[in-house]
Amino acid sequence: MSQSERCKQYFTIVPEKGSGSSKTVQLTEPGITPMKTVIDNRVLAYRLTRPDTGSLVTEEEQYILEVNDTEIRCHRPDGTMDSISWKNLLRVEVVVTEDQPLPITCFTLHGPSATVVIPEGATNADDLSERLFELPGFNADVFVDSMSAQTSKTFTCWQRGETI
What we know:
Low-confidence stretches: 1-16, 18-47
Number of helices: 3
Shape: globular
Number of domains: 1
Number of strands: 11
């Protein structure tokens, strides 16, 4: 079971009334009292303990992604949110760093004036991966290579107007 699938056991993404494709993250498990951050009446889990194992949600899982037809939003554990619209997306990279005991992998989404960095294990990262694969000219082979990398490296998987 992927990290996103495990997190979906404890979170529900529900459409916001009257806002098109925008969604809200809510806790689904009754009786759980997480330390929490609230943004615009959205509860974002910060130190949620899983009732089945008693373990904490990983640091990466505390980053919660919303992926829709117009933009990608990354809600961070500290309560901030970064976003980038699909129309402003210029380049997609996967960056691997040599942290111990395991490498850390992040998606880096570049726009004209901002870059959004998202941990690979973020909640709903699978939704982002699926959408990235739909970009014209997205290099799936480079993406797959990045997921098995064990040393520091930046993998450019897509660039607007170019075939990688």
